[in-house]
Amino acid sequence: MSASLSAVVIGAGQAGLAASYHLVRHGLRPYVDIVVLDANPGPGGAWQHRWPSLTLGRAHRIHDLPGFPLGSPDPDEPASAVVSRYYGAFERQFGLPVVRPVRVDAVRPGPGRLLEVAAGHRVWRTRFLINATGTWDRPFWPAYPGRELFRGRQLHTHDFRSADEFAGQHVVVVGGGTSAVQFLLQLDAVAATTTWVTRRPPEWIDRPFGEEWGRAVERRVSARTGAGLSPESVVAATGLPLTEEYRRGIDRGVLVSAGPLQRLTRDGVILVDGRTIRADTILWATGFRHALDHLAPLGLREPGGGIRTDGVRSVRDPRVFLVGYGASASTLGATRAGRAAALGVLASLGADTAAAAR
Asked: For residue 358, is pLDDT > 50?
């Protein structure tokens, strides 16, 4: 059991690092007032687990951490290596108190106004919590009839490593997001054939994904989390950017959806329109859900399934801040949310100190 801390940050990805940077910069003492608990064996957040063929040039844009520009790394280097190196250098540069590997089991009410963060036999008591656990640990497998019957291989994008594993196979890719699109383009070079299965027709967006567009998307997602609803999928909020590479994929017939899936069979899938597709492998590019089970003892969820937030602060328990959740799930949004959470914690600490002095 540690002495009482001012803040515990769970997660050392983009949002968690941004939050801890601002807390330390504004005077919280590393390991005395604040710790950052990270479940991973090393720096890099979820990026360290991405498949080696995902190069920096093909990844979603990596936004700068505060006060520490990424610069211009080799776009052909694996994104996992670039980001792990970048995050590690950031932690060292600013002396951030990252403790790893620590997988948090539960956050529960503690004595007085404190929270207890439990991980195995260790417990940290804290006045405030910034949760930055992201989604990587919760790959989403949708329920379809016959999934247990299929005799071929099934894997989620969480476990994808290299397109070369699928040489000569027919691969059915399920999912309508950018990950599905990128996998289809990779598989087209090595697999015998591919079939793209989506619940809805792909929504290709032929316009610049600029700053104003990004704000509009954040407002849309924030409206859901502010109402206590579960955040919607990224592609539902953004659509798919119609890049030149994607245009060529459409023209070749690779990025053309065959329609929605009805069920799986021993040898493949049956689509809603009745067509039967043989498959060697089914790749579930069906996204992730927020890793929030450890917060269950606090009772934060609303009847709509989500955690209602005011900005990045939990409405049900104002001691808890959520970053990388809802509108802050992008790397740009995560950086801003980390700062907002840190400033919220600092303001609350100041108010508590002032109240105690009266």
From this structure: no
Establish whether the linkage from the previous residue to 202 is cis, with ω within 30° of 0. Answer: no
Q: How far is CA 163 from CA 98, 100, 167, 192, 325, in A?
A: 34, 31, 7, 12, 30
Distance of CA 45 to the CA centre of its chain: 10
Question: For residues 351, 7, 50 and 326, what is the CA-based torsion angle, rounded to 10 degrees?
Answer: -30
- Cα distance between residue 223 and residue 243, in whole Å: 29
24-28, 46-50, 101-105: segment of lowest average pLDDT: 46-50
Amino acid in the structure at residue 195: T
For the entire predicted model, the pTM comes to: 0.87
Per-residue tokens: 223: 């409206």
Measured CA to CA, the distance from residue 39 to residue 142 in angstroms comes to: 26
Cβ-in-10-Å burial (0-12, 13-18, 19+) of 288 comes to buried
Q: Which residues are CB-neighbours of 264 under 8 A, at least 6 positions away?
A: 144, 145, 146, 147, 149, 150, 270, 282
And the tokens for 57? 């040039």
Task: Give the integer Cα–Cα distance in Å for 265 and 263.
Answer: 7
Q: Give the integer Cα–Cα distance in Å for 84 and 13.
A: 10
Contact 317, 298 (CB under 8 A): yes
Give the pairing type, strands 115-119 and 106-109.
antiparallel
Whether 277 contacts 290, CB under 8 Å:
no
What is the per-residue pLDDT across 203-236, written as a single tens digit (0 to 9) for each? 898 876 555 656 666 666 667 766 777 766 655 6
